[in-house]
Amino acid sequence: MSCMRLIHGQLKLPLIPRTPFAPRNASYSRMLSTRNYHNVVRQASKQQAINTTPYLDSPNTIAKPLLASRNTRGISNMSTSTPKPTIAVISIGQMGLGIASLLLATGYRVITNVSDRSTATQTRAKNANIECLSSDTDLVQQADYILSIVPPRDAIATAQRIETALRSTQNATSSKVVHYLDLNAISPTTARQIEAIFTPLRPTIVFIDGGIIGAPPSLSRTTSPESNSSLEKWTKPGIPISGPDSISDTELISVLNMRFVNEKIGSASGLKCCFAALSKGFTALVLQSFSTASSLGVYAHLQDYLEENNPGAGEKARKSVVGCTTKAYRWVEEMRQIGETFDVEGGWQGRAQVFREIAGVFEGLADVVEREGAGKLGDAEGVVRGLGEGLRKSG
């Protein structure tokens, strides 16, 4: 078995070694029993089948098959001789910064264009060692992958920006292929609209539908009890992706914890919407329940009953209230996108308007945060008290 080789995908049987006891002639073949000989062939055929399994991008990609399992997370790296691609991240908010930091920690070059953003955003990007370019034209010329991570309301405008920059440099970069990954919380309908923006520029640009499920990547450090050495571990969100095109960098797939859903544009973004409907829908219900209890003067009693009847639920609810204050403005459009998903894809039609109403809950909170500042609201009780006061003033 140790002599078995696969050369250019073809089966090569074991060579007959030259030794004083086994000269290169037919006598060596007779030393192998018929059973052992066929075992060699059988095992070689199995190995050849594994090595020729279709990969995510092409048969030339050296990696484990991505589609081997629906739950595939770890993918082996590409050849170390292959240079890592340049990744553009737009924009550098909380999630974008976390994704960029993870990529930088694993050796990728990360670029962005924050020339039109606030001084705080520019400083945040520079402090994270992200290369800040002065224009979208420079960005598309240098990037191999573009990750769009913006508020849902800006998803289409961001795609149009990149399309304009690509069109202006099409002649200069005609041989280059750029992958555009829309990782925003949008409906399948919006994802298909964005795909249509890039369709005239194919094959210069490849559109990948996606979403981000979970909190931004974070690095934790622990000490090994055995060696007393420091250990680093990244906690990552999940990134489902879908569409007819593929990603050849299997290391990038593993680093970003991507999971291929299917070949339809809209499936990955729809999955994100279905998940967010549960997690953020819960937060919207908590905001309404807690703020109403606060107005009635029974907030503390509600917390007591939660703890008695559903231990842990109260703590989770309170954390969700405090955690959403700085994100509420982003979630307004996300709720509308969820409603559109349930309407069009789920067949709920007008009955999905509940999420359009939920958008109003987060819009009300966003107004309070903008007026008061998230830091002044304090704990969950302070947040819902401020929300209730804001509702009474607007009513």
From TrEMBL:
Annotated ranges, domain Pyrroline-5-carboxylate reductase catalytic N-terminal: 86-165
CC terms in the record's Gene Ontology section: chromatin
Pfam (any one): F420_oxidored
Listed InterPro entries: 6-PGluconate_DH-like_C_sf, 6PGD_dom2, HIBADH-related_NP60_sf, NAD(P)-bd_dom_sf, P5C_Rdtase_cat_N, Pgluconate_DH_NAD-bd_C
GO MF, one example: DNA binding
Gene3D superfamilies: N-(1-d-carboxylethyl)-l-norvaline Dehydrogenase, domain 2, NAD(P)-binding Rossmann-like Domain
Domain Phosphogluconate dehydrogenase NAD-binding putative C-terminal: 293-363
Domain of life (superkingdom): Eukaryota
GO biological process entries: transcription elongation-coupled chromatin remodeling
Family label: Belongs to the HIBADH-related family. NP60 subfamily.
The protein, known as: 6-phosphogluconate dehydrogenase C-terminal domain-like protein
Organism: Paraphoma chrysanthemicola
